Structures are given as C-alpha cells and as structure tokens.
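Supplementary Note 3. Input sequence used for the single-chain structure prediction.
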Amino acid sequence: MFYDGYHLAGMHLFWWFVWLLFIFWMFASPYSIMGYRMLKYSSMDILKRRLASGEISNDEYHEKKRILELPLTK
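The predicted structure, written as discrete structure tokens, is reproduced below.
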C-alpha cells in the first residue's frame, strides 16, 4: 500500500529524534526539573547561609569554618 515503511522515515523519524533529545536533556540537566533534582551546595555555602539566617553565632561560624578549611589527612 501507500504507507508501507512510512513509520521509519519522514516526520515519524523526526518526532522520534525530538523525543529522544528531550529525554536526554531531562536526565543530563544539572538543574531542578519540576523539583526532582536539586542543586548541590558546598559545606561553606551551607555554613554561610546558617550564619546569615541567624542559626549560628559569629564565633560558631569561625570555628566551623576553621574546621572545614583544615587539610584532609589519611
């Protein structure tokens, strides 16, 4: 008939490509997509945020900052 093999070529192939590209983008994206993925913050970012919100005092901040900046030993 007229439509034999049409599903492998033309616009159908284009739409398969679009869907595969969309799925790849969704899983390769490092940012939040509808709340499923979260950005990762460093320990210093969290510590600065806690100081800014008033959860910890200035002395606690400097003490914890000093601990975080110590070199790692094995």
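The radius of gyration is 25 Å. Residues 11-28 form the longest helix (18 residues).
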